[in-house]
Amino acid sequence: MANGKYRIPRDGQNDHSREQAQTRRQFLKEHTGAELSHTGQYSIDPACLPGNIENFIGIVQMPVGVAGPVDIDGEDAKGRFYVPLATTEGTLVASYSRGMRVINECGGVKTTVVEQFMQRAPAFIFDDARQAREFGSWLDDNFDAIKQAAESTTSIGRLTHFEQWSVSRVRYVRFNYTTGDAAGQNMVGKATLAACQWISDNYPGDCEFLLSGNMDTDKKHSHLNMLHSRGKRVIAEVTLKQDVMRKLMKVDTRVMARSSVLANMGAMLAGAAYNGPHSANGIASLFIATGQDEANVVESHAGLLSHELLPNGDLYLSVTLPSLIVATFGGGTGLPTQRECLELLGCYGKGKANKLAEIVAATVLAGDISLACAVITGHWVSSHDKYGRNR
């Protein structure tokens, strides 16, 4: 079935062209009946797509709205930002804008990136558990040489430390890197392969390895990442003033604090990866708009919403995202529309990844404030019914 008339057309010399995309759309029409007329209308040059897509047929166009502005007092994101959100969910952009207005009225949001790593985690297999234990000690003794081998493959990746676990006769080792302004999954894979080859050549005993033993948790949620960051650990903080909350949201801060306790218990009971209202909404919308790897939402959305009712009635609120994976260089960030959205935030190119991470965290906090208040006041259902139904 894969041969002859069922094989998707390809051009070995120039497969990323308008003509070749048209050829594939015509092929699909003949085999499925689908017209793909809108998919075939786009403004970007397919010549910029090698490395981003195979069997290109066109562009899926998604609405992009802008939320904000939001005032951010970060170490890298400083000032007022208009945030592009790509979504098909009505009320979403309006809700984030509402939360951002509250943040601004309360003096803005403070954002901090506290640490950042990217991992690859090979498994090393031995004859018994004692050999695996001894191998772990040998790794620590030879860290500098392993680091040199790993970093020979990259100009910006830096191996910082190992984490190790023994299970049966296997030693699982998590290689932790910093990766500059790239998300870095491919970078650390290549670096770790070079490191493993050096280890195999230099370890005094037999050393069999599998490049990933699945403890790197690539594109999977893991509680391990809540404790030891994968991507960037970023925190956004705001103090919600009691009078502002009553005026703008018609919500008493004491009621919001009580509701947060109930939500925390519910999230704990469910075993949820995030205890706030909806971190994935803002993250996914920003990821799509700015050319991030959308599968990383599953890791990036995990986190902790913390609150404290202050003696004067104000409410301290913070979002901690321990595994936010973002990039401002490489991958999909250089595609034309994605680059424009990054430029809207002042986040395109090298030296901007922490800035983008701070903006994402501030956006998540704004969305959580808005949705929490909508749930408390009973506007959650009515707003979706009024604005979120595509009739």
Automatic annotation (TrEMBL):
* An annotated GO BP: coenzyme A metabolic process
Q: Which residues form a coiled coil?
A: none
Q: Which Gene3D superfamilies match?
A: 3-hydroxy-3-methylglutaryl-coenzyme A Reductase, Chain A, domain 2, Hydroxymethylglutaryl-CoA reductase, class I/II, NAD/NADP-binding domain
Q: Where is the composition biased (Basic and acidic residues)?
A: 8-25
Quote the Pfam families the UniProt record gives.
HMG-CoA_red (PF00368)
Q: Which UniProt keywords apply?
A: NADP, Oxidoreductase
Q: What Enzyme Commission number(s) appear in the record?
A: 1.1.1.34
One of the record's GO molecular function terms: hydroxymethylglutaryl-CoA reductase (NADPH) activity
Q: What are the boundaries of the region Disordered?
A: 1-25
Keyword NADP listed: yes
Q: Which family does it belong to?
A: Belongs to the HMG-CoA reductase family.
Q: Give the protein name, as stated in the record.
A: hydroxymethylglutaryl-CoA reductase (NADPH)
Species this chain originates from: Alteromonas halophila
